[in-house]
Amino acid sequence: MSAGIDRQRFSAALLATVGGEPCTDLDGERPGVWLPAVAWQALSDIVMAQNAIDVSAALKN
């Protein structure tokens, strides 16, 4: 991530790109984001393309 963009703006841009809806947990207290399956797939593609995680280790868990 470049120094010219902060975490909040990057997060907002990423959610706008992959899609997502604001939500809260079941108690209605903690804010979060609901992501459709296509958004999870897009995030997976991004992470795997960047080799950001050891995919084989992540799949074992």
How would you summarize what this structure contains?
This protein has 61 residues and is an alpha+beta fold.
Describe the protein in words.
The chain has 61 residues and is of the alpha+beta class. The chain has one domain (7-60). It is 51% helix and 13% strand. A two-stranded antiparallel sheet has the order 1-2. The protein is globular. The model has no long low-confidence stretch (mean pLDDT 78).
Overall mean pLDDT stands at: 78
> Spatial order of the strands in the main sheet?
1-2
Through-space gap between termini: 28 Å
Report the sheet with the most strands, covering strand number, pairing sense and barrel closure.
Answer: 2 strands, antiparallel
Radius of gyration: 14 Å
Tally the beta strands. Answer: 2
How helical, in percent, are the residues? 40-55%
- What is the N-to-C order of secondary-structure elements (H for helix, E for strand)? HEEHH
Q: Uncertain spans, ≥5 residues at pLDDT below 50?
A: none
Number of helices: 3
* DSSP strand content: 5-15%
Total number of domains:
1
CA-based shape: globular
What structural class should be given to the helix and strand makeup?
Answer: alpha+beta
Which SSEs are present, and which pair or pack?
Layout: H1 7-18, E1 21-24, E2 31-34, H2 37-49, H3 55-60
Antiparallel strand pairs: 1-2
What descriptive keywords fit this protein?
61 residues, alpha+beta, two-stranded antiparallel ribbon, 2 strands, 51% helix
